[in-house]
Each structure stands twice: as C-alpha cells, then as structure tokens.
Amino acid sequence: MRSLSIIVPAYNEERRLPATLQTLCAYLEQRHFDQAEILVVDDGSSDATAALTRDFSTHSPVVRLLTNPLNHGKGYVIRQGLLKARYEWVLFTDADLSTPIDDLARLEAAVKASSADGAIGSRALDRTLIGTHQPRWREFSGRVFNSVMRLETGLPYRDTQCGFKLFRREAARAMAARQLLNGFGFDVELLFIARRLGYKFQEVAVRWNNAEGTKVSLWNGIAAFGDPLRVRWNALCGRYR
Predict the structure, then answer these.
(1) Mind listing the pLDDT tens digit for each residue in 143-155?
(2) Rounded to whole angstroms, what are the CA distances from 117 to 78, 195, 217?
C-alpha cells in the first residue's frame, strides 16, 4: 500500500480530535507512505471542531478539512469523504479511535492475502479482542440488528457497524456515488451496493475499546433497525443502478 486517505467523521469532537490527529499523523510518519492525507469531515459541529482542525492543518499539511454548515448524519459525511479522498486506498475510522490505527495492518494483510477490494473491521469474529465493552443493552441490540440485517439483505458479515473500514478508491467512489442513507445504517447500504457491483471485502477481527461520549443515541439505534429494509426497498426500486 503506497498511498492512503484516512477519513475521520467529526461532530462536536473538539475534546478528542487533537489527540486523534496527533496519533494519526505520527502513524503516517512512521509508515512512510508515498502519499497520505487525513480528511476530517465536520458534520455541522457547534463547537470548535472545525477551528481546531484548521489550526492543526497549518503545521500538519497532511490534514484536510471538509465542513458542512448543517448536521446531516454520519452516512452523509462518510459519503463526502469517500468521494473526495485522493489516494489509492481509503480508510475511515471513528474520531475516538475505538479501533487503534495500528490495526490497519490486519486489514492490509487480509486484502493482500485474498486480492480483495477492501476489508472491514469486525468486533464479532473474536470478542476476546474487545478491551472495553459497550453497555450490555447496546451489545445485545447490536447482535439483534446483525441478525435482522443478514435476513433482510443477505449480507454475510457478522459486524457491519464497526467504524473501521478500508476500500480501494475505485470501490469507495462507486459505492458512495450510489449511497442514499445519511444515518447510522449507511454501512449496510455501502456493503450491499458493493456486493451488487461485484466488489469483494474481507471481514477481519480487530481490537476495540468502547469510548465514552458516543454520538449514537437510543433513538438513532432504534431508527437504524429500519435501514436494512430501506436498502432492500431502494434496490427493488432500482435506485442503486
């Protein structure tokens, strides 16, 4: 892997973002990519997220900022990032780095071994890699969601919602160009579109630690249960062509 774009969706992340950007910049410097960037996509934050990113970019030229005047949802900003990413491989990761950036090596190895078009991090394949668990109700609802998702979409993945995914830029742009969902169910939609387009992804066990301050509310979680059905409906209506 010679070039990499890292997408970081950010909504009111002024407290966590400075440390995250320092960690990601140090990682890129250590890896010596030919070309690399960190693309922070601000989702209409009301705090200093955008200002902090601009300030950071003045002394770290690998950092770029995309801003939205309004809050649209994680799916919306990920779509923006996938379409604006410049380099050969595109990784998106949560601003809290729940999965450490070093685990990119796990995804890279899986892609190289299988000649796949990407790899998705999974908390379900090896739960011993989870250091700090989510509250029990969230873990239970996540398992129920996955069962519903697999039944409604036919996707084989055990964990579609882990925010640590790596794609070839070609695949990233093709998926994002067809993506319709702006909410937290966008991961399912991307993977569904990818399968229809013939792209192959590997599911890879990664480390994960639940971080306080999640932006996923109870209502967001409940609403996401309808997203796999929306994906199927969109497909039946020919909206992913």
Answers:
(1) 999 999 999 999 9
(2) 18, 11, 32
